[in-house]
Design a protein that fits this description.
By secondary structure, this protein is mainly alpha-helical. 58% of the residues lie in helices and 3% in strands. It is built from 23 helices and five strands. The strands form two sheets. The chain has a three-stranded mixed β-sheet. Strands 4-5 form a two-stranded parallel ribbon. The longest helix has 38 residues.
Amino acid sequence: MGRSSATAGGDITVRVDWLARRLAQQQQDAAATEQHRITMSTHRVSRVPDHVRWANRDAYTPGLVAIGPLHAADAERRLRPGSRLKMAYLHSLISRGEPDTAKHVAVIQGYVRVVAAREREARAMYAAEDVEDIRAEDFIQMLVLDGCFIIEHLLNVYNNKEEQALHATPFGPAQLAVDLILAENQIPFFVLVDLIKSTRLPELDHMGYAPPVLLMKLLLFYLAGEKGRDMSEALPDAGNVAHILHLLHATVTAARTRWEPPPGIQDTAVVGMAQEAARLLRRLPLLLLVPLLYPILPEERRWSASYGREDLPSASDLKRMWVRLKKARGGGSSKAPAGVASALGPVPLAVKLEHEDCLRLPQLRLEFRTAPLLLNLMAFEQSSEQPAGEVSAYAWLMAKLVQSAEDAGVLVAAEVVQAAGNESKEDVARIFRKVGAASEAAEQLEKSYLGEMLGKLRERSRHPLFMMWADVQRNYFTVPWAVVAEFVAFITFISTILQTYGSFKK
């Protein structure tokens, strides 16, 4: 009886040891993964919060290809055409450096090895609940297929090679350009680097770039055309890039910080005096007409707006306050870059207030990609704990400027907004309201790059003279008032001078 009990006890001891070893290994793996996750928490790929996502659900959801684990479940159903493309592109990429199909297995084995070596690090780029149910084999296969697909597409675009299978899908290239910059549709950038290192590309050997640099140049060309490729020296090292959306954000913000106004006449004392005289001449209608027309304006029709830190006059009201709205122009070529970033114009996010009465804004082209582009750039800023990031601040500003169809008309006339299709002015206003609703910049605008400029605009909007002048225009002028008002002011000014001269002569 005792021996049986001992044998049973021995069996239990063996199981305890085995369980202890397994739990210890799991604990070590979990601790290592969590350490990677903490290290990468700043730019981790995560789901867009529901309170941001609900109004623009389609803007964060891939329409052709699922990249990474967050939408992998759609790959076998809704996104099946994109999944078929991945297999074809894997074969094409390998064939660039290894035409013998019998050796393709060896190349794929190399891909699997390099990705498997950093599988734990790659998992840490995602929230635990998004990847914990994916087996290691499936996770590695997904990263290999997705990464090779992206690299092959970049090479095709760079070499201007027609992608017949992609073009066979309606709006395929445009939709893919959007899918690759979605916040929820990303894989770690180091996976792309490791895969391109393991790929022979004889047609690009003459360029002499190291694989990480080559990948950066291919992506910058894809995202922003020639301008993007030329900016590679100003962007982060490939080792500091989290994913493609991170690189796009860096491209856009770097373009803003490198923007300089076009060279003009030197700011000499004479030129400064002439500009000041021109500004005073433009303000003559304020001095001449406001005292005559404002006193007879009914009280209920007078300006009553008060602008706090979360508000701003609209474009039409700023125009009535004699703020001119103009598109920003960068030095050098004004040609807009190709690629998805082209929707933001040649000088993205470049906002500047000149002489307190000229607001320069970047030229924004409204097209299929514009809203998803802005929304996902903002989602990246929010996930990176940048609620008042540059894109979020810019989106907030544009939503405040365009609050009505009239405001949209003002910006379209100033060439600040270009409608690529047949959008009405109300459609334009609706787009900006949708984008602005996703911005979380309002609470921290003073800390943003627009903080000082917004303060000056609010100060102008509280100036009694400009408030009264805005009321006079809103209620009395139904024709293009600027031309008429300036003509009347000029005639009155000349008449006053002649009368004064005549009285002295007598």
